[in-house]
Amino acid sequence: MNRNGKTWVSALAAVSALLVLSGCGTSTVEGTPATDAAPTTSDLVPLISPDQTLEPAPALNVNGVPVVVEMESPVNQVVVKAAEDVTEFWANKLPTEFNLPKGYAALPASSSKTECYAKLDFARFCQGEMIWEVPQMEAVQAKGGDGSVLVVVGHEIGHRVQSSTGISKGGERNADCLSGVYLASVRDGKSSRFKGNDERIRFAANNAFKTIQYGDETIVRERMAAFADGLRLGSVEQCSALHP
């Protein structure tokens, strides 16, 4: 996945549109956009004293498929939850068999460890695996909340839908449209893990694309248009026709 005036700042500050993980396992689209305010004391993680031992983090997996974690971060748990929801949606929606991703990896940056890792730029679906740069995914989350992470994951797994169905040869706008198709199910209350209305979902998508594209408004508009087509039409076939 590759990477505006005072009025935008005022408008975005007034929108309550973040997907926040809740204790019951369902995420709600609520809250306020992230700000540049300095962290308060309550935001800071306490230091581990010398006589304490730090318990290892539980191993992450998506539907039983282990996640290779080369960089720990709370955002990885959001990615995992999103991947579970997106893959479940497509497995139920597609008339043909949906080939689940065979691997996942949370990385600090691209590396020469594998051919796919070497091609990593933000997030990528490669040779059946979904991989992501943790610092970049944290930036997306900081900008638009968990909902923006969900949009990114929807896009990447959209590439798996493309290879499973043959509806596209890996088109980026097609994957944006497929992400919109999935988010339409969230809006319509069909997800067991996430919920949110149309306005909040569009806010999350806009902030995700702004972060990924470093604010390039032309590309952001193009990506939002494709995503909005999927959100509005909810159809794989329409995504294929409009964004081959």
Description:
The chain is of the alpha/beta class. The chain has one domain. The strands form two sheets. The chain has a five-stranded mixed beta sheet. The protein has a three-stranded mixed beta sheet with strand order 1-2-8. Helix 6 runs antiparallel to helix 9.
- Mind describing the biggest β-sheet? 5 strands, mixed
The helix-and-strand class reads: alpha/beta
Number of helices: 9
Distance from N terminus to C terminus (CA atoms, Å) equals: 17 Å
Placed side by side, the strands forming the largest sheet appear as 3-4-5-7-6
Query: How much helical structure, as a percent, in the residues?
Result: 40-55%
Q: How large is the radius of gyration?
A: 18 Å
List the helices and strands and how they pair.
Blueprint: H1 6-13, E1 18-20, E2 27-30, E3 61-62, E4 65-69, H2 75-93, E5 103-107, H3 115-118, E6 123-126, E7 129-133, H4 134-144, H5 146-165, H6 172-187, E8 194-195, H7 198-212, H8 217-233, H9 236-242
